[in-house]
Amino acid sequence: DGLVVSEKAKSNNFDVKIPKSELEAEEKGAEEERPRESDSNILDVSSEYPRDKHISIQRQLADLEKLADLSEGERKSCPLCPEDKFKACYSHKLHRHLQNLHWKVSVEFEGYRMCICHLSCRPVKPNLVGDQTLSKLGAHYHCIICSATIVRRTDMIGHINRHVNKGETESRFITARAPKSSYEVVKESATDVQVLPNHSTPQKTDSYFNPKMKLNRQLIFCALAVLSEERKPIECLDAFGATGIMGLQWAKHLRSSVKVTINDCNETSVAMIKENCHLNKMKVKLNIKEEDNDETVGNGEENSDTIEVTKMDANVVMHLRSFDFIHLDPFGTSVNYLDAAFRNVRNLGIVSLTSTDISSLYAKAQHVTQRHYGCNIVRTEYYKELAARTVIAAVTRAAARCNKGIEVLLAVALEHFVLVVVRVLRGPAPADDSARKVRYLIHCQWCEERVFQREGNMMEENPYQQLPCDCHGSMPGKTAVLLGPLWSGALFNTGFLRRMLLEAVKYGLDEAQPLLKTLVCESECTTPKRFSTHNPGDEYKQEECGVYIRTPNTSAKSHLVHGKRKSEEALRSTAKRQRAEHSAEHPPFYYNIHRHSIKGMNMPKLNKFLSYLSEAGFRVSRTHFDPMGVRTNAPLAQFKTVLMKYSTPTYVGAQAEGPVHLPGELQVGEEVPAAAAIKVEEPELVEGDMSGVFATMFTQPYPTHCAD
């Protein structure tokens, strides 16, 4: 009669007769395209979904009834229920059963109905006696996208909505690779890479390429280029390759100076990295397990550049081998890979890490910050620098566990990421020195004054005395909070940043050059007017970590010792020089000029205000953390004093333009007395004279208006 019994139906303990022509077409399609194993129980209903979908997913009720083969005068079993739950019955009763107990409680998605299923597809928990056969079989739904089994209908709706919000389709869960025609070729810094069509969507995909991280990649390339000038060749690792764009840029521009290893634990990403290597005419050296199948550049063209591609967990590859340069860029936080990164990194090597868990680092999810970094933070005006110091503190503790210290070369916190680049110093002494720089921060929540807690383990009777402000004495309750532990040392190395700027100019990295100029000014705490790109006294006489570093214009080569420490005499002189120049480090944190503006007053331009602070005898510079931020060693009271002096009223006719003349007893550079101790008599107001108003406004300790 042209009907046969489906093998799949037999496995579910019921007989379903399907036309023979349909089975032959299905077998023919299965030979042409072999479905993945995890979706073998799903029957195809559309070209957009797997070829095999579960029988509970149908378009119409009639399709579901066809599985039962309803015919008059014969008893049939329900295709979605076991026989012990629903016995065979006549067609009219089975029709009502399918309609009321399966079809009406289904979940609809793009024209398909995911009906409830009572078969033994989902493992059930045993009862108290331990006999699973006596336990009740649980009803469940089968997801049409990822083939997951969900028990509740509301949970199934939420599960489908999450797929839709993330833009995930069936192809996201198929291990078979997409055809080459669906790839896009993106060019960045003279490097071509193949990416997936959804590379620009902000989601976690198998091979994620983010065009917004171009600046991040350029900064890391400049750091590696500086290290390649110190010693050659260097072994560098991109632990999370994805498309391999970063490692390809290293190998393509630095050539024989570097030995690049690109790692990824995803098979699809590894295959894409190999194709991108061939696209850029690079040789591919596979890991030990696949060395017999080494591939070379096609078209008969020989190239000495070779990239090693590995498919391992990042922690495993960093434990197995030693590297001079390691870059970590996982999805989210990097704390899970810090111990492995510092275990085998070579002395004077560099570890760079990019953290994209912005919600926790920028104090939007403080409980996550406590869980990942062991740090307590709150939202402040300097929250970006707080995030950078939080990451460096975690890096310091991880390095100290491996008897290694660090020197921070670069710390950048922008909208999408926090980048930290550190140099590794082997030995317990550098580890102890670095660990001592991890301290707590006392932050006043009323005026946002801040100061690092003094070193020592002894408890202080009144910790509020460490704050320069007097908010605790003039305001009721507790006004300060303890943040940290945080990194209290410098965030930049001026000489290293200058050499990074030279490499950026050399390789034409236009996006990184303005940021590096800002970072050099910030590290020196100077204004851009005093900044010089070609300063012969800085980049050519570079000394870091007690080691002479070779630079392009060094003439005295006899004094260079690559990768070795200097003599004891030189180390002692270096230590003395570092102690003398310790005060020259850039001051920690910054103030936002809008946050501390005065109500009813026009504040001066930012560059003019920087010059006013500099004339008052303070070190001052702009900061990349905040476009309206001012990094200075001036206390907050002096900062407000200078800001008040050079602000003008907003209304016309009150006073001519120019600085506001403060009372004679209070001058710039003197300590501002507490608000409770200030006693100013209100003078009589004369038409056109606003000095009394300014004196009254100045006696208010902290303005309540903040022009953010």
TrEMBL record:
Predominant location category: nucleus
Keywords from the UniProt entry: Isopeptide bond, Metal-binding, Methyltransferase, Nucleus, Phosphoprotein, RNA-binding, S-adenosyl-L-methionine, Transferase, tRNA processing, tRNA-binding, Ubl conjugation, Zinc, Zinc-finger
Top-rank taxon: Eukaryota
Classification via InterPro entries: SAM-dependent_MTases_sf, Trm1, tRNA_met_Trm1_C, Znf_C2H2_type
Localization per record: Nucleus, Nucleolus
Catalytic activity: guanosine(27) in tRNA(Tyr) + 2 S-adenosyl-L-methionine = N(2)-dimethylguanosine(27) in tRNA(Tyr) + 2 S-adenosyl-L-homocysteine + 2 H(+)
Segments of this protein annotated with the region Disordered: 17-43, 557-585
GO cellular component annotations of the record: nucleolus
Basic and acidic residues bias: start-end ranges: 17-39
Gene Ontology MF terms in the entry: tRNA (guanine) methyltransferase activity; tRNA binding; zinc ion binding
Pfam families: TRM (PF02005)
GO biological process: tRNA N2-guanine methylation
Database matches in SUPFAM superfamilies: S-adenosyl-L-methionine-dependent methyltransferases
C2H2-type domain boundaries: 143-163
Stated family: Belongs to the class I-like SAM-binding methyltransferase superfamily. Trm1 family.
Official protein name in the record: tRNA (guanine(27)-N(2))-dimethyltransferase
